[in-house]
Specification:
Blueprint: H1 2-10, H2 20-23, H3 38-41, H4 51-54, H5 56-65, H6 70-76, H7 85-95, H8 100-111, H9 119-136, E1 147-149, E2 172-178, E3 183-191, E4 201-210, E5 215-222, E6 234-242, E7 247-254, E8 267-274, E9 284-288, E10 291-294, E11 305-310, E12 315-323, E13 329-338, E14 342-347, E15 355-363, E16 367-375
Parallel strand pairs: 1-2
Antiparallel strand pairs: 2-7, 3-6, 3-8, 4-5, 4-7, 9-10, 10-11, 11-14, 12-13, 12-15, 15-16
Length: 378
Amino acid sequence: MSAEWGSDAVFPAASNTLLGYYTLNPHLALYVNQSVPLEDIGWKADGHGGHQYGAYIFFSYITNHFMDKPFIGAMFNNPRVRSEPVALAYDMLAEAGHDMKEIFGDFAARTVNFDYANGAYYAQSEASSWRRLQNAIDGAVSRKFAARYDGGGTGGAWHSPSREVTPGSWAYNTYVVEVTEDKAYSFAFRSDEDNPDYEDYRISVVVRSGDEQDPIFTYYALNLKQDGPAGQYTGRLNEVPGKAGETMFLVVATTPEVFNGFDTYNFEYQIQAREPSSTDIISDVDAGDGIILHRNAPNPVNTYTRISFRLPYAAELRLELIDAVSGRRVATLAEGRHGAQIHNVEFRPRDLADGVYIYRLTVDGEYTAARSMLLCRH
């Protein structure tokens, strides 16, 4: 993994034909290598020997967004890296004030569409990997998406992942819904009572809108409670608006405090569509003149969140954070002249008290949009 990470760190636009060996088989545990007997576990994955090399993308995500590049050097100079590299990364991130569970959940949701820096190059690498797999293995199968649905979702039925793609530890499944007409969607989840006691998850719904050249992504968190009859996790996300032509992704990431072994985590999920009403949640705020302020994700906020906004033209702007109770401005998240594109601003609330905050975008002193976020770290 370190060699692939190093190439990506030095030449971030270079193609890597091993990337897809991970992203096309994301149900495998993060630490799977060529010696793991998949058939004994029940998994299927073509070319899984390359999985450990393609997994560099997760560590690139860490060093691109949370830690400096020496993080990887510190990992590989630690004797623990030989026997428990993922546990070591978890502990090192915790020491730096980061929660790897939140990071991995966010990574999984964004990797579905490579919605981060150099995403277009990663997408090209995945396509090159897929061609390499097809040339090497007759009948190769991509398992990037565990299942696909039309606009009706599961129709209210509860579905489970097939045995061959049931996720392991620090792994994820993605379920795709192609929206064919304007509907409001609900997503529900419940874990299996026979799962290990240390099961844990981060679940997101991603909505992709816009065109292929200029997509817009909106993120929702499906929050869980451990309130099932046998202590299993359950959760529901209601009223996600969908418009004809959009694509929705339900991303289920496993985040147990286990860093070896090959347990799998079974669950059921439900995706329902109904006619939208005037009370449905609006996912974006339009400031006028084509300026869009998106919902931050994750929300509620623990260690960090990301705020996205879209400018149709270059403009002077200010993005401020305001205490909802006192009305006092507590931070300026971005300001100055910004180009015509989608901008992403990452925010880490290190010195703020828990509570509700407003983030407000003002463009050219004329157009204003605002949304709220909940900071909850305790």
